[in-house]
Amino acid sequence: MNIWDLIVALILGVVEGLTEFAPVSSTGHMIIVDDMLLKSKDILGSQEVANTFKVVIQLGSIMAVVIVFWSRLWSLVGVNIGNSPKTESPDSRLKLTHVIIGLIPAAIFGFAFEDFIDKYLFRVETVLVGLVAGALLMILADWKTKRAEKENYHYEGNSLDEVSYKQAFLIGLFQCIALWPGFSRSGATISGGVLMGLKYRAAADFTFIMAVPIMFGASAVSLLKKMDVLTVDVIPFFAIGFISAFLFSWLSIRFFLALISRIKLLPFAIYRIVLAIILGIVYISVM
Fold first, then answer.
1. How far apart, in whole angstroms, are the C-alpha atoms of residue 215 and residue 252?
2. Which residues contact 251 (CB under 8 A, 6 or more apart)?
3. Which domain holds residue 143?
4. Which range has the worst mean pLDDT, 135-139, 160-164, 214-218?
5. Which end of the chain, N or C, is surrounded by fewer C-beta atoms within 10 Å?
6. What's the whole-number average pLDDT of the chain?
7. Cα distances (angstroms) measured from residue 146 to each of 152, 162, 199, 266
8. Which residue has the higher pLDDT, 150 or 46?
9. In sequence order, what are the residues at sequence separation of 6 or more whose Cβ sits closer than 8 angstroms to the Cβ of residue 7?
10. Which residues are listed as membrane-spanning (predicted)?
11. First to last CA, the chain
């Protein structure tokens, strides 16, 4: 591989890292940057190897979440590391069961419709629909928040430790919407959390924690099925993509969590609509 090939791996890792957990749809960005512009499949030799690369860099993003929420993830199983809250403490209600309840709906729907989604929904047209529909959901969540603030609404979930089992399950239902490519898992679940009475930061924290098992499990299974494509000559490409995805995911998660309570979801919704317009124009121009 030449220098340009490795730069492509770096760029794709950066795109994955910056978009995987922000509510902007990493799928939409990958279609523009990779499928339409950089075309990693030409570098790696086939679409199958390129798809495996995307699984590998997604694992890099998941590792970043694990690092950011390291203490909190251990606290879910009752292990106190550093200043993490113990799950048995009356001040800390979030438990592993909350996460499991939140994962059940998407796990069922994903298993039932996996083949249909892979066969019919991974197209530019459906991603465009997902981008716009997700933006409208985010605008609705912001609108409800502003209306609630005017009415002095008391939030049921001011912090991550106040997420109820009912809220966890309903957020899980919103996560099912994200099975539609372009909708964005974080966009759907954060919006759902806000609509269910959580504050933005609590909804974001729960979204990221819930993403670890479902994304790691899906990526691990997919990778195990495609281990035969991991030949020696593609390892540098995969390694650079993985490392850059990890680093930029870590940065974007920290930045997003510090920002979300102040700017809320509207700027991301506007960005998604602009992205959908750009994607539509690019798609039409290459047809």
1. 17
2. 17
3. 3-286
4. 214-218
5. C
6. 89
7. 10, 21, 12, 12
8. 46
9. none
10. 53-74, 94-113, 120-143, 203-223, 235-257, 269-286
11. 30
Q: Is the pLDDT of residue 279 over 70?
A: yes
Among 187, 213, 189, CA closest to 266? 187
Q: Encode 198-224: b = buried (16+ Cβ within 10 Å), e = exposed.
A: bbbbbbbbbbbbbbbbbbbebbeebbe
Q: Is the pLDDT of residue 227 over 90?
A: no
Residue position matching structure tokens 């609630």: 148
Q: Which residue has the tokens 């009912």?
A: 166
Number of domains in the chain: 1
Q: What is the pLDDT of residues 260-275, one digit of tens each?
A: 989 999 999 999 999 9
Q: In angstroms, rounded to a whole number, what is the distance separating the alpha carbons of residues 271 and 227? A: 36
Q: Mean pLDDT, to the nearest integer, of 67-95? A: 72
Nearest to 265 by CA among 212, 198, 214, 215: 198
Please tell me the predicted confidence (pLDDT) of residue 90. Answer: 47
